[in-house]
């Protein structure tokens, strides 16, 4: 069943936009922007519970790592959001 679910591609694009803008934002502004993705995923029924847990884990890693290492986790998260 999970293989055939269609996710809204706008969510992945919004995340990509937030990551791009994050290079020009303060740490707190960037974290506030990431919270937007968290809220969207929370209410989106097309993601399974396991997918949501993986997404939340990657969001947490992005939030808690050095800015130079964010891209590593961002790529994985972008794939999950698509």
Descriptive notes:
- With 82 residues, the chain is mainly alpha-helical.
- The protein is 71% helix and 0% strand.
- The chain contains four helices and no strands.
- The protein has helices at 9-21, 27-43, 49-64, 70-81.
- Helix 2 packs antiparallel against helix 3 (49-64).
- The longest helix is centred in the middle third of the chain and has 17 residues, at 27-43.
- It is globular, with a radius of gyration of 12 Å.
- 15% of the residues are buried.
- The model has no long low-confidence stretch (mean pLDDT 91).
Proportion of residues in helical segments: over 70%
Average pLDDT works out at: 91
- Main beta sheet: strand number and arrangement? none
Query: What is the percentage of strand-forming residues?
Result: under 5%
Main features:
4 helices; single chain; globular; 82 residues; mainly alpha
Q: Topology of this structure?
A:
Elements lengths: L8 H13 L5 H17 L5 H16 L5 H12 L1
Task: Give a quick precis of the structure.
The chain has 82 residues and is mainly alpha-helical. It contains four helices and no strands. It has helices at residues 9-21, 27-43, 49-64, 70-81.
């Amino acid at each position: 069943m999970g293989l055939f679910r269609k996710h809204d591609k706008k969510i992945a694009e919004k995340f990509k936009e937030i990551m791009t803008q994050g290079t020009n934002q303060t740490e707190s502004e960037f974290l506030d922007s990431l919270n937007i993705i968290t809220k969207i995923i929370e209410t989106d029924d097309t993601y399974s519970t396991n997918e949501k847990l993986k997404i939340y884990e990657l969001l947490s890693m992005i939030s808690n790592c050095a800015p130079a290492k964010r891209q590593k986790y961002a790529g994985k998260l972008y794939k999950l959001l698509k």
